[in-house]
Each structure stands twice: as structure tokens, then as C-alpha cells.
Predict the 3D structure of the following.
Amino acid sequence: MKVPLSWLREFVDITIPAHELAEKLSVAGLEVEQMQYIGLPRPHGIKNAPSDAPEVEWARDKFFVAQILEIKPHPNADRLTLAIVDYGKGEPIQVVTGAPNIKVSERGMKVAFVLEGARLYDGHATGWELMTLKRAKIRGIESGSMVCSEKELAISAEHEGIILLPDDAPVGAPLADYLGDVILDVKINPNMARCASIIGVAREVAALTGKKLKMPTLNVLARGAAIAGQLEIVIENPELNPRFTAALIRGVEIKPSPFWIQHRLKLAGVRAINNIVDVTNYVMLETGQPLHAFDYDKLVGRAQGSAPTIITRLPKPGETIETLDGVKRQLDPFTILVCDARGALSLGGVMGGAESEVSAQSKNILLEAAAWNYLNIRRTMQAQHLASEAGFRFSRGIHPAQAIVGLKRAIEMMRQLGGGEIARGVIDEYPRKPKKIVIDLPVAEVKRLLGVEIPVKEIVRILESLEFQVSSPKSHVPSSKSKVRGRSTSLATRHPSLHITVPDHRLDVDGADDLIEEIARVYGYARIPISRMNDELPPQRANVELDQEELARDILIDAGLQDVVSYALTTPEREAMLIPFDERATTRAAPTNAARDYVRIENPISAERVAMRQSLTASLLELVGANLRYRPRVNMFEIGLVYWGRRKGDALLLRELASELPGDDALPLERRRLGIALTGARDESAWQKNDSAPQDFYDLKGVVETLLAGLRIQNAAFTPTGHPSFHPGRAAELKLGEAVIGVFGELHPVVREKFDLPAQAVLVGEFDLDALFARVPPAQPLRALSRFPAIAQDLALIVDENIAAERVHALIAQTGGALLQRVALFDLYRGEPIPRGKKSLAYQLTFQADDRTLSDADASKLREKIVQRVRKEIGAEVRGG
Amino acid sequence: MLDQLNQLRDNALQELEPIWDSAPLEAWRVKYIGRKGALAQAMEQLGALPKAERGAVGKLANEVKTALESAFAAKTGQMQQRALSESLESEPLDVTLPGRPRARGRLHPATAVMREIYRIWGDMGFQIFRTREVETDEMNFQLLNIPRFHPARDNWSTFYIADSDQRVLLRTHTSPGQIRAMRALHPNPIRVILPGMCYRYEQITARSEIQFYQVEGLAVGHNITFADLKGTLTEFARRLYGENIQTRFRADHFPFTEPSMEMDVECIICHGAGCPVCKQTGWLEILGSGMVHPDVLRNGGYDPAEWSGFAFGMGPQRIAMLKHRIDDIRYFWGNDLRFLEQF
């Protein structure tokens, strides 16, 4: 909300600089987001709110209030005139002006006048350009000074004419003294709704600076016939419309508002329209109570000449209304309407209707000030996509007591600005008067929650400055004279609690905690000391799941992979691209996961993000594609969640069971997964040829094995899989015991094409981390280190192609027993002289004993035993043997 | 004869000096200390000498022989060293060629800043407690004092899950974790942080994202005060930004805390002088916080008459963006390696 300091000063004395006031308001919960200095110098070298609006300082020796003594025609131009201006210093000066709002032969107007050499904005530029005013000939007439528009002075973007000041403006006064101002743009949080008005902010300023709030008087000079009988009010649903007040003024003259009203509205960001509409806006900004003016005669007309009846009610099915903005609106069942017997007049609390609005011809005005249910107002604004100043305030809640304040203030202002006679009395339908709220505040609570001892006297001062009424049970409130020396603890015992009555502009206070917040805020957060918690420590326990996750990240980073974090929202169609063929068109195995329900978004923000992902692989493939545009090699992994709708019989498979509560079993499942993607050369090296071959299945398997080793997981099995996403024959399942932990391999070429990836092998894998981590063994005891030498022997075996290497390895290891410390495959060979259909696997066998030095004969004996075994079990022959 | 031997020695050593090849060296050996060399010939004349001279000459001849043989051995050694050096120096590497790169992975900057936050809060006694992302409206809003249609909901544009009658949603903040932590840990005192991904119905722009990390903190105990909250947050700011960081506490509003406040730190880029990053204010908003609202304590199972607590929430990505001057939040989930490899 824009708060001009000049307006604020009407209600509270301000004795500190604007930037200090802004800082006080900001730390007290009314954040000053912008400060616009109008004509006044912006202080530098201090922390200060910025301004998006242009600013210019009006030099005190160059900018003046002046008077036009005479206007003469320009001899050479029809659109220009010559104004003779008295600015209170020396001889009057002639200036050339093209302002359309002054005419030849007019005189006496007060204007904003600047002398040659002044810095100000160029009124004719399309944007905002500062310039220095220089002497120049304009169509043959020399002129060095000028009369200014608002744009030239950076008051507004208005450049249609020059500013015409009120008749009582003091000629010769520096303009900065007369019109200089600072506008605070204050952010109104939902809990500060009461401050969405000049008086609301002034009340805070008074409390924060120790000044007194000066409230406007609410006297109404009413001489017309009594309002009773001229209007009926019927409130159908008091829950939605707890109060409706109205006043009537007859015989007003509709005309522009005086300068100051228009000027203040402009500074506050509201357009001036005419005196009656302006008053409703002005009083709303001043008091916070929105108002609505009806053309009374139009209502009488609709009632066929009799006294109109105003009804507030919910809409009938299919009912519509055309609002002031010219939009015809379908109404929702929760929207409160202000109606008469013929139909809807306005959207209560949000926007008036077109039919009964005030026009230039209006004479008799019916003024409404009401209270509405804020939730209904908010729903209406959302449903109608409608924002208004009134709606902003009503949707945050306004106490019904404020209606009469706004009504009286506005009807009297209408009389002062438009003439006419106010009907005596007001109509005040008030079926739901809120109860006075009285809160018991134990003084000790203040210290218990804030951690600081605030004297009772200070607590009372703070609450009273915000218009709370304070009394103690024995009506013993300490006067400012009472002294308490060195016995601060006795305060609490002497004042066990205070009884606080909440003022009738507050809807947000109903408990002691609300009061303590007010006390802390006004006392000053900065004055509350800093302390360390002095309290029982909770049980300290590690988060094992997170530790494992971070360990896995470290292992994968060490393996050269980049950690990524991608969007959890995707489309089912994108994930369906992981299946290469229509299932009906292939005889191959169906997807391993039975189709799961997607967790779909009811209100997606784009067609690309409509459901929670079920796979990390699709996300990773998109990232691979994006990065392959810039480089040929991408190695990355993601640890993240996948989601699916829970079905009957789904096990409770949740990440951290501690945080799940009874009743959560209907919520979707969230599973932690690891996704890996590799593509491009094995080695990034540019100039050495070795190992620049493309990565293949075994690179990915190596990463998986590295991860398993890092997690101390043994006995993993890798079995071939016919999973459809993968290149046939180049994919494996990772199994631990019976559990399938994940699947990995080379992406199926058709899937690769669907993801628009270039023709190079892409290795992907996805693993269930919850299942994997559940199988991390506890720490294992150290295996003794042998002091005795080891013997290495090579063994090359020729076996059938279809014998899996894992089988050969297992047979060797098993037969070698405890003395065979290590079996390492170092060569795989096919081709001459190995027969077709066979392959040669060459192993290095390392034998070692813990208790003695093995002889070559010992090793050879074991080797021979292995040879016999593999010959018998899998028909292996020793190569060259 | 003695002179003759001395002369022989001097000549031989002088001749040996410039020899650096094996053929001349062999010739020298044959000439002087070979079986038929000059020294052998001189020794043969020994018998013809008078007995009185024979002893002195024989001694000298042996000395000369030893001297020449050791000079020969030394020369042979020197020549071998020289040959080795020459062969080692013959194939120098271009040390300016690039080394073989070791593949190096990196943490995503969001992961890295999360770890930093975990570490700091871990050191301060706050454990990590993660909760679910697909939440109920009740947990995400209602139990946190945000009823349906409440104006405070304007701050949390929400993705709802289809077919749930708006009862299930993607959590808009980590705050539902407060209720979950309290219900899970009751009746113990609590010091936890609640990290994780949150979602908001926002257009994706340089400044706003549909998903983002948040870290919430919660402390509940018998004797926890607003002053403790200020102290704890100040300590966090010092550990994150250094001992001398200036802080400012501003009243703010969250429905689930009261009193509520925002902590600002002095702009880490301009140090308070005013710059575009702090929008010329000199301050950076770092986290929101407050004393846990009595209703929320009650909803978590703690009696507000006996217990009190504080909560705070921060955006790790904002911390990373300020630290590395990242000006576009879309870089985070865009995962362009050219971005990621800078961390």
C-alpha cells in the first residue's frame, strides 16, 4: 500500500527522517518495499528502500510555487502561449508553454515554476530522461524558465497539461516545501490487514515512536429528512453479511474533487473520477473501510417510485451481473450479492454493478458501508479473477465496527465537497455483532516465550498504544510513577495476569500468544537478547538412510559421474517411450513392472508436467540428449524419488518409516531410486589413443560393482534380462538373493531414437535404493594379513560360448578353497586357433596360506584340481595344455 | 730405471685422460698394462738390474701398475655412467603436453549446499528428519493454521493431486514435517531439520520454479524462547557466512508461528552499500522463523502450556545463488554440464 508521508502526518506527528521511520516499520512487520522521494533529496550512504519510480530533487533555489499574471498569445504559433509568471522573487518572468489546460486571457492560476539551470525530467521524451533546463528560442521567443507538468517533476507520468495548484498556494515558496513528499510502499501481510489504511499505518507509527494517534472527528451535519422510511435493508444470511449500514445525501453536485483530494489519490495510486467516487476511495484509503455509492434515484426508479429495499443474499441458479468494469459475470453459489427486488446491484464487497453506479447526472446518493465474510469475498475474487481495492481489504477481514466509521466520515465529506443535504440518521442493520474479546495474559508468559523480562509498565504502555484496554484483576495497573528496584521477579507475582480487551479494529487477536507477538514487535525484536538453548537435549540419532544416500553419491562421484537433480513432474507419454514397440506387435517379454497408477496433477501448469515420474531413466535420457548437443560424452547419475498410486496389497514400502503416520497408507508411494546414464568415450583424453573407445555394458557394470563394493555388499548376481527397454542380449538384472534390485544395460536402439539421441551406445540403469540399502551388511571383522609369500599361476581355459563367465569363475573359486586368495580374469579370446563356438578365458590365480610358505608344488596341485573340476563340470580344456 | 718408470706412468695417465670411447681405451690397456704392454716389458728388464737397485725399482713398478689399473677401472666406470646418462637423455618428454585426465564427478550445487546446511545444523545438534512429498491438505495447511480459502493460502500456490477432491497435494513447503516430526517424536524434546523438495504452481522463470529445495528447522522443549531462536539463527548465520556477519530480525507473518520473524543478513556482495542483488537495501532475506504457534504444538501432541518451540525455514538454492551469483534459478534442474562442472 502506498502511504504518502504528507497524508500520514495528518494522523500522527513524525519527528524522525523518512528512512528511519521506514526501518522501524519494516522491522515491526510492515515491510517498506519501496520509498519514492518526490522532490525531496534521497539520503545516501545509508540502508534505504529503493524506488522503481523516477526521482528528482527539486532544488530550493530553482523550483517555486508561482502565479500566472497574464497569458498572451504566441505571435508565431497557435498551439503555444506566453505566460507572465510571478514567482515571488524580483520581476515577473515570461515563459513559453504549450500546456493545453491554460488559455489566453485566463489569469491568476498557481503553478509549479522552474528557473533556468534546473535539473528535471524531459516531459516530451517517451521514457524518463533527466535534463537541464536551458535558455532557448521557441518559435522566435526566447525562454529560460518553464511551468511544469507532473512528469517533469517526477510526480506521475502525466504530461497532458501543467500542474494547477490550489488558490491558497503560497507564491514564492520553494516547491519542495509545498509539494515535496515521500511515499512509503508498505507490504501488507495477511496478519496486518488492519494496516491497509493511512490511519492503520499511523496507529503503528504512533505506537513505535511513542506519539499519539490523532483520529478524525466523525461529526455529520445532517439536516435532511430522516433516512428512516427511505430505504429498507434485508440481510438473508448474517454469517456472510454481519452488518450493513447506509446513509443518504440529496442534491449533491457531481464535479471534480479539489486539488488535495486528487493529489493524494494519485500518490496512493488511485485515479480521480469525481467528487463522490473520489470520497469513497479516499475514505477507504484513510480508514480502511471500503464504501460503495449508489445513484439513489436509479434505485427508486427500479422500485417504481417507492422506497427501495436492499437485499443481501446468495445468487439464484443461473443469475448474472454486469459489473462496473463492463464484464457480464456468471455467479458462483458462494458469491454474496447486494440486490434490490428486481435483481443484483453489485458483487458485495468486491465491485459495484453498472446499472446503479453514480454518473455525472446523479443528484441523490445512497452510501453503503458493510461488513462481509472474508472467505466468501476471497473465493469470489478467485473465481471471478477479479481484484479490487475493496476486495483486497474485505478478503483479509475488516471488523464490522469499522463500517459506521467509514460511513460517517464519507457522507460528511460528500456534503463538504458536493453540497446537498444529508438525511438525518443512518440505516444500521447489525445482526451479528462480534463479542468483545477479553484475554487473560499471565505476565510470566511474556518471559517464558520471549526470554526477556519486559517491565509490566512497558507491557501496558505497548498494548495501550495499540488501543488495547488493559486492566489487572484488582484494577491495579502500575502508574508510570511506581518504582520497582532490583526485584524484577516480584513483578510477575504482583501482576500474575493482565486483562486485555481487544480494540474493535482487530480481528486477528484472540489469545495470549497474539498479545505476546504485539508486545515483542513494538518492544523491538532488536532489543530482545540473543541466547543459547538451555533445555533438555533430544535423543541424538543418526539418519542412516540419508548417510547411505550420501555415501552412494560419494562413491559415484569418485567413479567419475556427475550428480544431477531433475524434475519430478513429467508425462506418462514420455515414460512410455522407454518401451520400444507396441507390446502387441512383439513376442518378447512384457515390461517387468505391471503398469502402475500415475500420481496425476489436477491443475498442471504445463502439458509437460502433468504427473509424478515413475522412472528416473526417462529424466536422465532427456538430460543426456540436452547435454549431447554440447559434448560427446555424458556420465551422470541421479538419486531421487519415484511415485505411484498405492493399490490394495501394495506393501508399506516407504523411505523413512518413522515419518509415516496412521492414515498415510492411502497416500501414494514414494520410492528412492538411483539412475545412471553413460555415453561417449571411456576416457576424456584428447591426444592419447588408448581407451578412447565408446563406453559399453561393462563400463556401466563396473560402476555398479564399484558402488556395491563401496557399500560392502557381496554376493551380487547379474543375470541376463529380456527387459524391453534394452538392447537384446546387452542387459542384466542386479539380484541380491532373490530380490531384483535393478536392471541396467545398453539402451534399445529404438528407445534411443524415440528420445532423439544420436547413434551411439547409451548405457542406463535404474536401481531401487531402499531395497539396496536394506542389504548393506554391518561392519565386518578384519581379515588377517598373511606374512607368507603368494604364488601366482596363470590358467587359460577353452569353454563353450554359452558358458557364463560367472559360472567358470565360481567353479575355480570354489575348488581353490581358502588357499586361492584371488581369481582375476585377464583375457577373453575368440578366434584362431580356438575352435568356433568356443572362447578362451585366461585367469591369474593367486595362492597364499596364512600359516606357511606355499611351495610351487602346492600351487600346481591345486591348479590341477581346478582343471579336473572344470573339465568334468563344464567340459573346459586347458589352452596350450 | 726409476725415472723410466715414472715417465711411463706419467705418459700413460696423460694419454688416458682424453679417452672416452671403448676402442682407444682397449688400445691404451694393451699398450700399457696388457700382457705385452710397456709395463710388462719394463718388468722383464727387472732381472737385469743390480741386486741393490732391484728392490726399489720393483716396488715402484708395482706402484705404477696399481695406479694404472685403478685409473683404467675408474675410467671404465666414468664411461659407463656417461653412456647411461646419454641414453636416458636421448628421449625427453614434452612436459607441456596435457596429463591423462582422471574422470571426476561432482556434486550438484543444490546437493552441495544441502550438505553444508546438514553439517552446520548437525554440529548444532539438529538431526535430519525427512518426510513425504505427496501430502495431505490437512498436514500441509490445516494443521498449520491455514484453513481452506484462508487468505494466507495466497502465499502457497498449490498443485493438487487428481481425483483427491483437493485433499492430497504436492507439499508447498517442508512445514508439514513439523507435524510429522512432533507426532513421531512425542513426548521427547525435538531438534530436527526437515529438508526436501517442495512444489508450487508457478510459471518457470529466471526467478521462480515449480519445484525447489527447502530446509525447515524445529525445536520443541520445556524452556525454549524467542531469545533462543534469535541466538540459534545468529549462530547459523555466523557458521554459514563468517563470524562477523551482521544480522537483522524483522517481524513477519506465518500462520504457524507466533511471533514470527524474518532474518536478514547484511548483503554478502556489497556489504550493505546497496547493489542490484540486495535491491539496494543492503540486506538479504535469508530465512523465515518464529515461535511455534500453540495450535500447531497442540496438533503435534505437545501441550503449549508446558512446551514451547521455534521453527525456521530457508531456501538452499537461494543460499547457493547468492554464494555463486547464479542469476537464473532454471540452471538448477536444467542440469547443463557446463553449469554443473563449475562447482
